[in-house]
Every structure is written in C-alpha cells, then in structure tokens.
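Office hours follow-up: a student asked to see two folded examples consecutively, so here they are.
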Amino acid sequence: MRKTKAILAVAVLLTMTTMVKAQSIQKPYETNPFTLVYEGAITKNEKGKVNIHPVTYKLNGLDIAANVYTPADYDPAKQYPAIVVAHPNGGVKEQVAGLYAQRLAEAGYITIAADAAYQGASGGQPRNVDKPQNRVEDIHGMADFIETYKGVDKEKLGVLGICGGGGYTLKAVQTDKRFKAVATLSMFNSGMVRRNGFMNSQYATIQERLRQATDARMEEAAGGKVKYVGGGPAATDEQIAKLPFEMYREGAVYYERSHAHPNSGAFPNSGGVYTVSSLLDLMSWDATDQIELIDQPLLMMAGSKADSFYMTADAFNKAINAKNKELFLIPGATHIETYWKPEYVAQALSKLEGFYKLNLK
C-alpha cells in the first residue's frame, strides 16, 4: 500500500511538473483573448480605458481583418484625431503594429491596425502574396474605413508605417493627401532589398532571381504549386546564428519565438514568407520613386544601431518637399528592438506623440 501511494504521489508530482512546464512555454497569443502578443496588451475591454474592437471590411472584394483601438472614455459624439498603423513585412496586426496602435490610443487617438490583404486573418488566395500595389492599397483602405468610424475627425488623420509598412506608407502618402502627418519607424524599402539584397548583397543574382520569379508565375498560371520564399520549420539556434545580418537574426527570434503568432494563413507563424512570383512586382518597385510628391510633415525614426538604417537615410534625403521633416535616431536600438524593447518603444512614442500633436491640430 505504501509503495502504491508513493508511486501515485510521484505520478501526481510528474503530472503537475508537466503542467507547469506546459504553462511556462505557452505563447502570448494563447493567453490573450484578442491573441495580442505584445507587452501590456489589452486582455479585456473596460469602461474608462482604451478598448479594442476587432472589425472586418471589404477592400477590392477581399475581407480585411483589423483592430480599432479607441481612447479611454471614448465618446462617439466627440471628435478625435486618428492614426493608421501599417505592419512590417511578414507581420500581423497583433504584434508591433498593435503595440503602437494601443499606445497611441492611450495618448488620445483612434487607431487602426489591419492585416495586409492575402496575409494574416485577411482574405486572398494564394496566401502570403506580397505585392507592393496590394500593400499600398491596404493603407488607402485603412484610411477609407477609419475616416467613417464614429468620432473620427477626417481632417486630423495621420499614419505610422513600421518596417516594410514604412516603405509602403511613403508610397501611399505621395498621392493620398488625407494623411496630414506621416511617420515611419525602422523603415524597410522592400523593393530595394528584394532587388539588390540586404545591404546590396545580391547584385550578382538579380537576373537569376527574376527568372525564378517568372518561372514561378508560369507554374501558378498553369495551375501548379505555389512556390514560396521562406516557410518551413522555425529556425534552430544554429541556423539563426549563421544569418548574415543582425536584423534577420533578431527578426527570426521575434517572429518565430518571443512574439510568434499563428495568424498567417498556411504557415505556422508570422514571418517573412512570400510567394516567389511576388518578386516580379517587388524587384521593379522602390519606396523612393516619386518620393518628392510627399509634401506632408514627415518624421522618420530608426535605431542608431540598426543595420537597416541606410534605407531610412536614403528615403529621408530624397524626400525634398516634405514639410518640417525630421530624422530621429533612437540611441542604442537595433531594427527589431524598436518593435518591443520598452525603453526604445517609449522613446519612439514620445517622439510620435509630439509630432502628431503638432501636425494634427
């Protein structure tokens, strides 16, 4: 009897230990009712506080999934300035875009963060198409939706583009003058990188990659398999360590581990997966083409240690007609650290709040 009790006790202990371990490795989205993965995320809507409102709307025939954040004590009869937030390449609205949208709502803005068409919880087939014209249209579409949201002052609309969303934002605002104040964080010029490689590391293979993209499109058109760049199992520690650039190493950890989210269609986590055929459009596109059309106030922010900073510097210098343009470096921050590290997020938000307060009068 004693032996049986001892065995049962050990079994119970092992079961409890297993449960504790299972709980300890739960992903943030598994414990948040809105599947938000960032620190300090809303877990429930409460009166008198910032609230989150999941919404869907149509854009070019597709269902777009978005989250709208409303300020504390939101009154739809009043008028509020609004901010559109465009997420990074491979990201979803529950990650860094949601973090900045929530924090800007805490500062008194109505904000919206939406999943790009063909990505996340938004519609579109095949999954993870990443064409620049779609991403730019996503930003126009968020403006279409939020300017009709109760309480939004249409004359006080700003935009924040993060990483790839920053490059697409620079393109969208060239013609969309509803946006009265334009900001980017850790801007990533998707066309430049897909064409030339990160830090111009793939010049030698441009024509080869274009032929691969052409072949992939031909196969899709014939009803064959859709080919992807990326995907597959999450990278191992060894694989991450071998990645040549800090942004990619830290990005693998952010998207696949610390802030992983399953809401990306056919793939287990958000991340940098896209169709090979998308390169036909990406490689002939550039965020800085016609950038002189931007005449709105412009704030561009980046980490001082970001190896992607060269893209922000290039765009900033070419935006010759932007009003009151400012370049703000966050001391000590890398590209990915501006997505989540509290001290760097706080600095970026402080700058954004001052910028929007000044330019959305």
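And the second, which I mentioned at the end of office hours:
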Amino acid sequence: MNEAIRPGVDSQAQEGPELSVIVPTFNERDNVTVLYRRLEATLVNVAWEVVFVDDNSPDGTSDVVRALALQDSRVRCIRRIGRRGLSGACIEGILASSAPYAAVIDADLQHDETQLPKMLLLLASDQADLVVGSRYIEGYKSEGFNKQRAGASALATEVARKMLRVEIADPMSGFFMVRRDRFEQLAPKLSVHGFKILLDLVASAQGSLRAVEIPYTFGARQHGESKLDSMVALDFLGLVLAKLTNDIVSLRFILFAMVGGIGLVVHLTTLFIALQLIKVPFAEAQAAGAIVAMTTNFVLNNFLTYRDQRLKGFAILRGLIMFYIVCSVGLLANVGVAFSVYDQEPIWWLAGLAGALMGVVWNYAMSGLFVWRKK
C-alpha cells in the first residue's frame, strides 16, 4: 500500500494540494477508512488532502485517522479537547487547511463524494465561490433520509430562507465546497457553536457569495448513529436570531436566554401545581418552582448552550450547585434593578423587563466564569 501511495504524495508535496476535504467526526471510527478509500478512488486526478477534525471521540476515531496518516501524508487529524460542535470543527478544519478550495463532507458516508470533482471544477473555473450539494433541486435522490428528519429539515430551510433572506434552495446542507480565500474573509463573523455552518456562512455573506447548487444522492448511514438530537431545534432558532441581530448578540447568549424563557414556563407550571393541586403554602410553592426551574435551566444549558463544554460525572453536581448560587445572586440583581427603574419611572412592565434583562445578563456572565469554565 505504501508504494502505491508514495508517488502521488511526493508530487503533491512539491505543488501542494488543490483541494482540502474537511471531515468533522465524533465516534466514526468504522467510517473514516471507508471514506478515505472513497476519496482516494474519486480524486485520482486531483491533488488533495483530507483533514479529519475529531472532537475527542471515545471510540478511538483519532487513532484510526493517525494510522491512515502514517501510510498517506495527505491524511491529517485535528483532535479537539474540551470543544464540541460541528460548526466549530468545520471552521477549524478549513482554517487549518492549505488548499485554495475546501470541501465539507460528513463522515457518516451519506454525502456523495463522487460529486467533489464537479464541485471543484465549478470553483476552479471561477463560475462560483460556493458549491452546495442540494436536496431541493431536480436530480436529488435519497437512500437514507427518513420522513421525520426530511420534514424538519424542509421546515427549517423555509424559515431560514424567509427570515434571513437566504437565496439558495438548501442552506441547511452539510455538503458543500467553498473558495478558501472567501471563507477566510467571512470566518470572523461565524459562530463556532451549533450544526448549521452553511446557513451561518451564507447569511453572514449577505449575498456576496456566488453560489451554485448541484444535486446528489444522499446515502444510507452504514455505521454509528446520527449526532443530531432534540436540542438542535433550539440551536437552529438561536442561530437565526443571532443573524437577525447582525451578530450583535452572540448565539450562545441567545440560547441561554431561550433556555431561561423555558425555565420561566417551568417555574410557573410548578407553582400552579404546588398551589392548586398539592395545596402547599405560597412560600414553599414559590421555592419549589424556583428550584425546579433552575435545575431545568442547568440541564438544558449543559446539553445545548454549553454543549462544547458539557459537564460530566461529578462535575455535574459541582456545576449544579454553582448554578444555584449564580442564579440566586442573579435574582437579587433582577429585583434590585427592577425596583430602581420603578422608582424612576413607575411602569411595572418596564421595571420587570429591565430586571429580567439584568438577571439573564448576570446569570450568563457568571455561568461562563464559574459553572462552564473553559479548561
């Protein structure tokens, strides 16, 4: 095998790769070698490299990639510690690449790598800055997209296109190729959180990217399972809201505030149950509502807002206690600001809004410092 690879590697070492294929991975050890073989077969006439960006997979994905890299210098591995998320992985991978064109493709073997030469030709001939593998144009075929996921994706696509005025048919696609110089220009505007890197890229470009969409065949997953969970819906809404504010407010803060809104509903529901059904005194009911809401907020923030810094094991208990403390102080800040505003302008809703805003800003800032601290 080494002898078969060496001639291509030596030639490429002198000229450098024309295409970098970025593959974000988490628990994909059974797929990476298959994908590498497919790229090798498809890109026979292209100087290429593949950069696997692995979020410290417990199944040893990075070990498999490094074993491939020992046999072929076109293979590289970026192993991320303490960071999670597809968008961040794609951004790091593209910025670490060395080719003028970069493609993003999933490791689950569902994207059609045979379309890469066509995508590269469109970019290299200056017909586009961005080429998207689209599910919503004629010629697309699906072998592994279930109806529930397809429906959710179609709804999200329609929301994104209307609210963010995105022109392409499939801004939710995870299969695309982009000019690296154009990506470099837009990278500072992109969020490292979440899953929808293409939507973020197109929305941030505000129509400045010349985009072409091509159909492809969406294959069936062969190994492992999808990394998408029920929290992705909130993640998506947070990204849309962040782009609507022109990134003045960060995606993480918006997600934190959205979770806080859910916590308010949980608080009121618990209060109602305790007062009306269990018949406990108001003080105890209010305390129960606050504790249940804070616990709910902590769990949701741990699995969504701070997904890339998710607490595990004993750290969850320590984090929960710190979250209780942070939110308790935040409540005092909330009440203090509300009273101060009310003294100046006795409008109850304005005072309440000011207090709530102060509370969420305090809780967000202190949670980042003391609960989900970066390692």
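Two things to take away from it. Residues 1-11, 224-229 have pLDDT under 50 and may be disordered. The chain has 13 helices and nine strands.
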